[in-house]
Design a protein that fits this description.
With about 475 residues, the protein is an alpha/beta fold. It contains 15 helices and 18 strands. The strands form 4 sheets. The protein has a 6-stranded parallel β-sheet with strand order 5-4-1-8-9-10, with helices on both faces. The protein has a 5-stranded parallel β-sheet with strand order 16-15-14-17-18, sandwiched between helices. Strands 3-2-6-7 form a 4-stranded mixed β-sheet. The radius of gyration is 26 Å and the shape is elongated. It starts with a strand and ends with a helix.
Length: about 475
């Protein structure tokens, strides 16, 4: 789509001072940093704009700049990176964040610039820019730009999708924003939620509360190494775990900006909200895996796997007794394909074990007709159990998994596919799972992969071969 990605928000000047520590100060018990290098880069909304720059993406930044050396340096860095800067007047001094670093660690952060000052009025050029934007990201860093009345009025009227990345000291998003992207800590502060229960439970509960309170279309709660939870008009949240290859990093500076900018661009290109959040999780994960702004990278300790009990019920009891999270999913899994694998891998990353509830042959025939299943239940169970992401398989004979769920009592029940997205039907198992405090979530699925489609395609190819032989 035409038009720029417009980032609106408070830009800061970040400076990393890197050196070596080899002694302690003689007059105070503090390390002495011998400076080696000093690197300036745009921070705040400036970093969000910088991260969005790509060969096929026009990026513009609406921000307030002070008339000082820091403001001039910010404008210089952004312009050199290919960001078109639309400045508004900022009284006072440019906000600076100076990090003193040694050995890959931040020793101290020094903030300059004083208390935030109210910015001036947006120019006609700024208002015209917002009216023709491809998408808009409001990157609020709590210094007042997102409160500017004329700017807020323009944001409320723009036809472009608006993504609002909030700040605890900032204002509410404009009503009608397509997506807001708080992290879990910010969400708790914005809603006053005490955070009882699991992170998933808090994200779901407080995410829906923020969506109603702010009158926005959806809330994507970023969960750090656990991906994101999307709360939309449907009753079941969409959980988007990160790729399994992502490693923990010490400093994730900029990951939220990468997430929000990617989501805004995807929405501007016509993606659904769920698709935009999936793309944003992947982009943020790749960003931190590559080192993030600080270049730190650390491999997490391997997750211990529980011993393999004789039954799925024993596995669930053992994991729960150790304080772990039991995850379950279900289905026919008649012809195992890449869509199944994506769902199972995503489900496994939500807890400490994954139990697959598998429809028996009789159950599949009742659901799919007399010609199904293609593979008998013993083969289907054996294939599932061979996957690294599956810890146990339990076969059930009934049309629905209600009875086996009542025995297992999973903490998280996972489904994919048709139950994801706005307006999707309520999962038939949802009420049962909630009785013991469990959560029901959906995970992304791979479009175009289905057992029915695979069988149909195979039959069509077989028919063509027969015709060709005649």
């Amino acid at each position: 789509m035409s038009g720029p990605l417009v980032v609106v928000g408070d830009a800061l000047l970040d400076r990393d001072v890197t050196g070596a520590v080899s002694r302690i100060c003689p007059d105070a018990p503090v390390p002495v940093l011998d400076e080696r290098t000093a690197t300036d880069r745009p921070g705040g909304a400036g970093l969000a704009a910088l991260l969005a720059v790509a060969p096929d993406t026009e990026v513009a930044l609406v921000t307030a700049l002070a008339d000082d050396a820091g403001g001039a340096r910010l404008a210089e860095l952004l312009t050199e990176a290919g960001v078109a800067v639309y400045p508004m007047r900022l009284p006072g001094a440019t906000a600076e964040k100076i990090r003193l670093r040694a050995g890959g660690q931040t020793l101290l952060r020094l903030d300059r610039g004083g208390e935030p000052q109210a910015p001036g009025q947006p120019s006609e050029a700024v208002l015209e820019l917002l009216s023709r934007a491809r998408a808009i990201l409001v990157s609020d860093y709590g210094r007042g730009l997102a409160r500017q009345p004329a700017l807020r009025a323009a944001l409320a009227e723009t036809p472009a999708p608006v993504v609002w990345d909030p700040h605890p000291r900032g204002p509410a998003a404009v009503a009608g924003a397509r997506l807001t992207t708080p992290n879990l800590g910010e969400l708790r502060g914005l809603t006053g939620d005490a955070g009882t229960g699991s992170g998933l439970s808090t994200a779901t509960r407080a995410g829906h509360e923020l969506r109603r309170r702010w009158r926005v279309s959806a809330v994507a709660v970023t969960m750090g190494p656990d991906g994101a939870v999307l709360c939309h008009s449907g009753s079941t949240p969409l959980v988007v775990p990160p790729p399994s290859t992502v490693e923990h990093v010490e400093d994730t500076c900029g990951a939220g900006d990468r997430f929000a900018a990617t989501a805004a661009l995807a929405l501007g290109d016509g993606a659904s909200t769920a698709e935009a959040v999936e793309a944003a999780v992947a982009a943020a994960s790749a960003y931190v895996a590559a080192g993030g702004a600080a270049g730190l990278h650390r491999t997490p300790e391997p997750r211990p796997t529980p011993s393999a009990p004789r039954t799925a019920e024993e596995l669930a009891a053992e994991v729960r007794a150790d304080g772990g999270t039991v995850v379950a999913t279900g289905g026919c899994f008649d012809i195992l394909h890449a869509g199944h694998l994506a769902t199972l891998q995503a489900a496994r990353r939500l807890g400490d074990c994954l139990v697959v509830c598998l429809n028996s042959d009789r159950s599949v025939r009742g659901l799919k007709g007399p010609e199904r299943p293609v593979h008998p239940e013993q083969d289907r169970a054996r294939l599932l159990a061979a996957l690294d992401c599956v810890d146990a398989v339990v076969v059930f004979d009934e049309p629905t998994p209600h009875q086996v769920l009542a025995r297992l009592r999973p903490d998280v029940w996972v489904k994919g596919g048709d139950y994801a997205g706005d307006g999707a039907p309520e999962l038939p198992e949802a009420e049962l799972v909630r009785r013991w405090g469990g959560r029901v979530v959906t995970v992304p699925f791979l479009a175009g992969r289905s057992t029915t489609g695979t069988i149909s395609a195979a039959r069509q190819r077989g028919l063509h071969l027969v015709k060709g032989a005649v």
